[in-house]
Amino acid sequence: MPCPIVIEFDWKAVLGNDTHTGRGLLSKGLHPFRTKLDEFTVAVGDLIVSAFPKAGEIKVDFQRSHLCDCGKEHKLVWFRTMKIDRGNEASNSTAECLLYALGLECERGKIGWTILPDGTVRRGID
Amino acid sequence: MPTPATVEVWESNGTSGAETHTQVTAYNFGSSDTPNLTAATYPLVIPVGVGPIYAYRKFTRWKLVTWVDTNTIDTLRYYKSAGSNATGWNENYNSVAGGSAYGTPTRANTLCTSDNWPTTAGTAFSVTGTISNPTTGYINSTTYCIMNVRITNTVVAGAKGSHTMSWVYNES
Fold first, then answer.
1. Does B27 sit within 8 Å of A83, measured CB to CB?
2. Could you say which DSSP state residue B136 is in?
3. Which of A85, B4, B53, B102 could bond to A4 as cystine, CB 3.0-4.6 Å?
4. Does A91 score more than 50 pLDDT?
5. How far is B145 from B65, CA to CA, in rounded Å?
């Protein structure tokens, strides 16, 4: 069996009056509510990276704010990209986490941040 | 505790409609439609004329085996992340948007009409497919990654080295 290597981040999600916390990907119970969340925040080292689906806003470290003014529904983007390599060696069977992406998706596309496993945060979602 | 889904790479072989499916640890091309092929057993014979001659093309899919806390897997793509081509040895792949359906693997120069596999994550070729918890099985059930290699008479006999193919997907 593959032996996946994944870095996971702690997160906090606010849905109405309820605050949920977790680690890694969004929990099954919250996944259907990606457009309804008031806030989704991830701690990346000392950085706080947030998306606000209902407001169409994203923030990093409470300093920058990008408001998407499309007027349409925004969906939380929170995924990790995994990679499986296949060479000519039978032992090459481990999934690797390349990055996480946090942001918002609407009809204009995705806005947000890419979080690398070493904790580097850069603008844009690939 | 890290809890990603378990995803494997599987190859399909045989006559369309009666194909077999195998988890592959390698992706070796040769003169037989065989998974985990031993190249020395099924070598490509250097053409007498210029050529080229082709190997049997490969049909590959991602297979979701185990869910843990992942909700959905999508955004499938693949590329060559390492390896360089020897003289007289080159690559082909199917670049039909989203991938193509299975067809009995042959050595004909059809389906895989685009040269040179993508070599960066940014240019990786996208294949249509998504799967959501709790369904298990092939993520790109009807859209395959299809690849092949070819040689010409300028190739030097012997093993042509290895390439690393990377199969990428998003978990959310």
1. no
2. -
3. B4
4. no
5. 19
